[in-house]
Amino acid sequence: MSSLGQMVAGVAHEINNPVNFIYGNLAHAREAVDDLIAYIHTCQAEASVQSAAVQQKAEEIELDFLEEDLPRLFQSMQLGAERTRQIVLSLRNFSRLDELQAHPVDLHECLDNTLMILSSRLKREITVIRHYDNLPKIEGFAGSLYQVFMNILSNACDALGECSGSKEITITTEQIDRDRVAIRIADNGPGIALEHQANLFEPFFTTKPVGIGTGLGLSISHEIVVEKHGGQLICASTMGVGTQFSIILPVKQRSQAMAPLELATV
Fold first, then answer.
1. What are the φ/ψ torsions at residue 167 (nearest 5 degrees)?
2. Which residues contact 60 (CB under 8 A, 6 or more apart)?
3. Which residues share a beta bridge with 237?
4. What are phi and psi of 52, to 5 degrees?
5. Which residues in 163-217 belong to E strands, given as ranges?
6. DSSP H helical segments within 193-236, as ranges?
7. pLDDT tens digits for range 51-76
8. Do residues 257 and 225 make contact, with C-beta atoms less than 8 angstroms apart?
9. pTM
10. Element (DSSP H or E) covering residue 110
């Protein structure tokens, strides 16, 4: 995972430089185009009669359409460049898998960046509903928490891929008390059979078909939440209703583990 993080960081860095160059020059390019259009208008106003060649060229390039379409074109390019920058930032944050010391982590930023990376899977058919509480930053390892959110949200997408009708993922965050926060990720998928729920966090256990999934995602997530952060990772699922994973994290890192928290089932 450390090697993967280094590779992702390297790719993100290489993409970041040309994207920043494009993004930084779009505003100047738009100003230059606006100046050229203003110059054309001035020439048209000052010239009492336009030659046939000038009129023919204006028709060939569809001058009126260009004047109307160019501002929209630059706006689309700027939005695309900004989105690319956000994805690169998400990848750079996600790549920090080998952090040695805990540091302040914005959980909502982690969640939003993970959703950004998964946007190609989400935007077509899955609705994401966010209910964010006013959370403090916690002491933790952001790169590792990205792994947890990525694993759980990817599993939710896989589960919803088997469903027809509306497909929803609901993310709810709340501060339980002064010392703990909770992140709940729920889907309205088919649910997990009761006999499988006790084995979910075992290495290599998976309910997915052969060739899909390694059975390591939830095991690694459990290790990150419980052992690395001193928290809890709880699954509640009902067949035909959906599945909810609750991630309970301490606000401050402590040597002693938190007292278990019982949560309502889905």
1. -125, 120
2. none
3. 243
4. -60, -35
5. 168-175, 180-187
6. 194-197, 217-222
7. 888 888 888 888 888 888 888 888 88
8. no
9. 0.63
10. helix 107-117
